[in-house]
Amino acid sequence: MNDVSRYIPHRPPMILIDAIETFTDTSVTTSTHISPASGLFSQIDGGVPAWVGLEYMAQTAAVWVGLDDERCGRAVEPAFLVSSRQYTVPGPVFPAGETLFTLVEVQLQENEIVAFRGRITNNQGELRAEAFFTAYRPHNVRSYLLRGETSHITGAAE
Question: pLDDT higher for 69 or 148?
């Protein structure tokens, strides 16, 4: 269960989370150790910019979607970040040496929309980031992507 690359549609160096810590029907927690080897690490700031926390949450949500697909006997398919709101962080950077734990909880599932609450804490349990965000989880990802590829030809998405 700990291979995050199985659930995230990115490839290195854009896989930003390290491990799956816990999974339930409605939540997942992942961990990320901040070091100079971390994706998007800033030598100047001595860590990862805090805006990357939203991507930690999105990748953790992708892990939940993939694990949920497997739990329900479906093929693992991606979801697409639609919106985020109320992203708050107490500082501008996640410093080197810190281990972050990203908890994503399903707040609502309706048809193809999933609303999440994300929280990032450090190894001392301090809140490092928080947000609410929504993802689109199409029933047929291939069809959805193909419609997007041809919408410029027809002038509008179907």
Answer: 69
